[in-house]
Design a protein that fits this description.
By secondary structure, the protein is mainly α. It has one domain (12-116). The chain is 59% helix and 3% strand. It has five helices and two strands. The chain has helices at residues 12-33, 38-57, 63-68, 75-88, 94-113; strands at 131-132, 136-137. The protein has a two-stranded antiparallel ribbon with strand order 1-2. Helix 1 (12-33) runs antiparallel to helix 2 and helix 1 (12-33) runs antiparallel to helix 5 (94-113). It starts with 11 loop residues before the first helix and ends with a strand. It comes from Hyphopichia burtonii NRRL Y-1933.
Length: 138
Amino acid sequence: MSFDSLSGLDLNGAFKIANFSVAGLTVISGISQLFSGFHSFLSGLYIIAFGLGIGFLEFRVPSEAYTYASFLFSFIGRGIFYTFLGISINLSSIFRILAALLVFIIGVVYIGLEAVPSISPPQNMNAEGIAINDEDII
C-alpha cells in the first residue's frame, strides 16, 4: 500500500479534529467518572486535567510543554499517551466504553502514523521554533 498520494495533502484539520475529539471525550468521561466513588473521583480529576491539556495544546504551545512533555510532539508519543488515556477511563457506562474505545483507536492510529514518512506532524506538534527562556530556539 502506497502512502505517496498523501504527501501533498494538508492533514492539519484532520489532526485538529482528532485531538479535539480526544480532549472533549476525555473531559466529558472524566466529569461523568467523578461521581462513581473515591478512586473514580481521583482518576476522573486526572482524566479531566489531561483532556484540558490536550485541548489547550491545540490553541497554544507553551515553551515548557516541549521541555516537560516532549512525548506529545511525536506521533508515537502522543499515540501511546492516548492509548493509556483510553485504558484509564472507567468502563462503567456505555458512553465511557465508547469514549475509551474511540480514544484508544485514535491512539493506535497515531502510533501507526509514526511509520508513515510521507505524513508530517501538524503545526502544533512541530517542536521547531519553540522559544525557551526567550533566547534559545530549539
